[in-house]
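Final report, section 2: Outcomes. Of the targets proposed, Hydrogenase maturation factor HypA is the one most frequently requested by collaborating groups, and we therefore present its record in full.
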Amino acid sequence: MHELAIAQSVVEAVCTRAGDRRVHRVTLRIGALTAVVPEAMSFSFDLATEGTLAAGARLEMVAVPAAGQCRTCGHHGPIHGLLCPCGSADVDVTAGRELQIVSMEVS
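The predicted structure is given below as tokens.
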């Protein structure tokens, strides 16, 4: 479960940035191609926050669908996995690999 390692890194970054302030909410952008399972991420986040300034914080996840530019047919838009709707794998991925801390709410 790589979500635990990701959650630990997120909590570390958020707590470092928060300083002495309590963290109430964290918002992440998670791309469809990252293979992050939302339920596992939520569970892992709760574990990773125990004993930190983010304990009890709410995790919000914004899903980013996969998109790309096909070199075969020219399609620019949604892709499925790493394939263009035409079936080609010759695709430049333009979205879906994101894993970003977008915001955090502190007091």
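Residues 3 and 37 are 8 Å apart (CA to CA).
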